[in-house]
Amino acid sequence: MTMPGHQTRRLSRSLAALALGSALLLPGAAWAQSWRPKASATPPKQAQIDEAKDRYSKGIKLYEEDGLTDAALAELERAYDLAPN
User: Fold this and answer.
1) What secondary structure does DSSP assign to 20-39, as a single string?
2) Could you read off the pLDDT of 18-64 as tens digits, one per residue?
3) What is the CA radius of gyration of the chain?
């Protein structure tokens, strides 16, 4: 049994959209697995907590006000590395 032409085109478009969507999601999924917080056996010192708070605030500002997602992410990761709580 063969499919009419319009069904074949619809299936081809659906498969192409699925392939494109998968390709766009893969880099994000790969990145999400690349960053790991640094484990620390000792609790952070007050100076580290203060710096982490400053970096967190700066990261939020960079994201919300300036739209600089890469810079914001770097600040937020550093804040978490300093005081992961």
Assistant:
1) HHHHHHHHHHHHHHH--PPP
2) 555 555 555 555 555 565 656 667 889 999 999 999 999 999 999 99
3) 22
